[in-house]
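Dataset card, provenance and construction

Sequences and ligand SMILES were collected as paired inputs. For each pair, a complete structure of the chain with the small molecule in place was predicted and serialized as structure tokens. The example below shows a pair involving flavin mononucleotide. Curators did not alter the output after generation; any descriptive sentences attached to a record were derived from the structure itself.
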Amino acid sequence: MTNPLFNDNRMKLGIIAMNCSHGSTITTAENTWEMTWPDTREVAVMADRAGLEVLLPVARWKGYGGPTNFNNRTFETYTWASAVAAITDYSCVFSTSHVPLVHPVAAAKQCATIDHISGGRFGLNVVCGWFKNEFEMFGAEWREHDVRYEYAAEWLDFARRIWTQEGEFDFEGRWFQAKNVWSEPKPVQPVLPVMNAGGSPAGQYFAATQADMNFVILKEHEPEAGKAQIERLKAMAREAGREIQSWIHVYVVCRDTDAEAEDYLDYYVRRKGDYEAVNNLLDIFGMQSETLDPKVLDEFRFHFIAGHGGYPLVGTPETIVAEIDKLIEIGIDGVLMSWVDYKTELAQWIDRVMPLMEQAGQRSPMRKAA
Ligand SMILES: Cc1cc2nc3c(=O)[nH]c(=O)nc-3n(C[C@H](O)[C@H](O)[C@H](O)COP(=O)(O)O)c2cc1C
């Protein structure tokens, strides 16, 4: 097996959003992620050597204003994945693709190319559109919410045929009609893993019936509710004859004491948070996404500044490992991490948290560099 997504670790690990300035943290605090290629290379190689399973870019085309202009500098996700694949040798490297903005014939070849460069470690995160202003940059049609998922299903059906079907074929769909389609080489992996973060009923149905990983927003952090949410999703996939992994986004603040970690969180969120950018972001959610109701959005405001609505892993290494036990209990298979300072805090994660995860049986001993 070439792709570590399917290894036996009870809690898999990944990094999210390092292709965007500020990563997932909406703050003016010191040492936020500037997003340069030398820093990207350093973090990607460090993660790969430590055996992290996933490196995931997000697809963003425009910043959110405010003093940080959060996420305004972004590397394009397929070309990013291609380069990251070439400098790593273990982690699964994802591209995140807005499927309405790229034709399946081109995208399928991009995916196959990266799968070859990585030696069979590629994965595709399918997104259907979140922010209308990004689509306006392309002059692209902003379809009705649920139709976006029907479009994505046809797009993926077409791409999957391109990845697997030998020889030429015609494709007749609602949106795509194509003649004598041909694409070589096929990907290295017999099946390319697909991730999707749909949270609405249509999004969940798409993830359950089409994806190998659902990237979930936990609607409540209380364990019983979380467990029920994850069990529902996995049951939906099973009804469709599939097994699906559930991953969540976590923001990490690890310090020598719990109090120090909480103080730093408070500092970068309450004292240094970019409330203008987060309000812009939440306005867009309120208008354009059906995932979260307004009350829940209010509760999540703090978490959006802290780490884009993710789940907090805040405290000492011991506190964090105990919290990960709870996530395993909920049924979470993997966490995609973000920090204020990716470089320093990833190094600390590898040195201080990963050995404890191994002792706790959450992961097998750290993979050594080849
Ligand atoms: C942590 C996280 C990161 C996401 N990243 C992107 C992204 O980079 N680009 C994008 O268009 N959508 C992104 N999405 C949005 C999802 O694809 C999806 O649209 C969203 O969760 C709302 O679900 P719904 O489409 O079912 O309403 C992300 C979602 C989550 C939870």
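Derived descriptions for this record:
The chain has one domain: 4-359.
The chain has a mean pLDDT of 94.
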